[in-house]
Give the backbone structure.
Amino acid sequence: MNNHLNFSMMKLIQALTPLLLINGALFANLEKDLQTQFILAEPGDTISIPEGHYQIQGTLSVEGKENLVIRGFGKDRSILSFLNQSEGAQGISITNSKNILLEGFTVQDSKGDAIKVQYTDGIIFRNIKAEWTGGPKETNGAYGLYPVQCENVLIEHSISIGASDAGIYVGQSNDIVVRYNEVYDNVAGIEIENSNNAEVYENYSHGNTGGILVFDLPDLIQKKGGNVHIFNNRIESNNLFNFAPKGNIVGKILPGTGIMILACSNVHIFGNTLTNNKSIGTGVVSYFMTEEALNDSLYNPYTADIHIYNNTFDRWPGFPDLGYDIGQLLAVKYGRNTPDIVYDGMQDPENPIGLCIQNNEDARFTDLDIEHNFEEWYSPFISNFSEEMSPHNCGKQHPMISTTK
Amino acid sequence: MSKILGKTNRLVLLTLLISFTFAGNPLKYAKPKLSDYGFFEGHMANHQPANGVIPYDVSAQLFSDYALKSRFIVVPNGKQLIYQKDGTFDFPKESILIKTFFYPADFRTPDQNIRLIETRLLINTPEGWLGFPYVWNAEQTEAYLEIAGERLDASFVNYAGDQVDFKYSVPNFNQCKGCHVNQNKMEPIGPKARLLNHSFDYVDGAMNQLKKWTSLGIVTGLPEISTLAHTPDYNNPEDGSVKERARALIDINCAHCHRLGGPAETSGLFLNIEETNPTKLGEMKPPIAAGRGAGNLNYTIVPGAPEKSIMIYRMESTDPGILMPELGRKLVHKEGVELVKQWIKEMD
């Protein structure tokens, strides 16, 4: 009897499916239905995002939940589109929660960030896609997958496309793994900002303005990041024009940047393959390079304890991006053969461990030594740039860090 | 204190007892209909408060698409709010804050053709404060709990005589917390001493609200009222300087998120009225994670140049990816924008 009932229900649902795909009113019902489930969820619940392409008008929010799974039928089968979003900036917002698993669905075209997670301990993104479907545009939302002020973050097997800031952005968080993801058509592919204990490995970051960024910025709650390992990533052809809205720090990223380390300490970059990033394979710079005023007395603008080893750099001869001061300087000095590793020479005077560069095959290096070479940005003494890498061979044996965690 | 209040409390208590069997579900603390609470006498839409339901207002208001608001507080019989040194109150459990949002058809005749949109309850449950939105029916006879929020067509004629049509947005249960959260716990925003420290027209005559609450015995620990701060009504030029009124406006409209412990603390932009650090207040401060909200501008506030200030850009936008505050605003608060512009223009 029961089976029979279920069978007829299934028949009915099958018959209704095409209607679901075309009827706006039913779309609205899915939105309300999901939001209601998010509000009423009990610990241990799994909420299912049905198969189909659904228009959602407002941010879907999860707040104060524990042990919750939100699961679709796969990245390209369960799609929430925010193309006509009328309220809230994010697609999905998760706050103040514990042990949340997001798996197997896509968030498209949100007005702001696709999925933002804040104040959450234990967040997993698995097989998630965040996407702006109109290509790289300034009007796209800032971040694709965006955990901030979180603990125990895992982002894996996910894709982020078209973010006007960073495809995957982990900010002011601790204990982080970002692996096996693909990011393209973003300004920054992956960005780790003011975060500690981050393992970023085996990602494929290509066709962004900058491939992978590790930043420490001033005026934030979590002041300092560190213990960041960027390894075994493929970082290719990150030569996209910078479409970040001006005013954002990533707007300063030179198109053609593979990896950029800004004002951080204790960062290890190893085993990466950096191919055809036309301007800067790997940059290590202080906050002074941003030319922004500093008003945060607790902030350390220098870099220190940065290790770059066992990476493979490869680029076709060609000019760096000439739309930015730094690109012009490099072009004037080096023409079509810009160096792979670019350092501004601003080592933290308080930290004895500087920049350590070893065993990157035939990678080329330059130290801009901005403290001595630049009175003003427009009067540099480019002849004093130093290609001498030996001061940065710290002679240390770098153990390979295990990829299992 | 009153029969009706007593009954209300027993009902609340009963609901709590029954509902402990449904752990994790916030609905156990709310009743399905507004009339279930017995807050109002007679025709409910008239908002004639029952005994023990005390009307109040706040001197600086959150802008909610020009909606007018009626506010009431219910304090459990024999219990008291305890004044805290930071100017807030510690509310006894089962306290309820009631806020109804409504529009006159024409703001030039504000007491005619009134449509009640929603009534939000903030209830201090055993799990802390929780927010519940009730949406009024077309007949204006009842309001029903809509835990997932609602979007409604709304319209009015403004003071200038222009017809304004828009989608009014009733927040969902989570969004209530989105604004009322502080250090991961929900708390009221409006009933702070500095926002209550002014005269209110009670049925039995005008009186300072804090004095009234003291005389009703629902508050304790208040210092001498003349020593307490008063936040100006930003709409009233008599009530403070441009700077004071602008700070009042951004405090009540922004600081529930933009302060230490609020959800926008990640931006490092702190707009609470107590903040004194110019960078944290936005002066020449580059945006963090603002995305296109930055609008190709470099700083939150450029002193003397409102047109170069991200704050103004976001206040003037109605694009959900740009506008601030993120929730509860579809229209531009023109008068508010003018005030903040004036403040920025006058900065050194």
Notes: The mean pLDDT of chain B is 90. Residues 3-19 of chain B form the longest helix (17 residues). Chain B has two domains: 3-227, 237-345. Residues 237-345 of chain B form one domain.
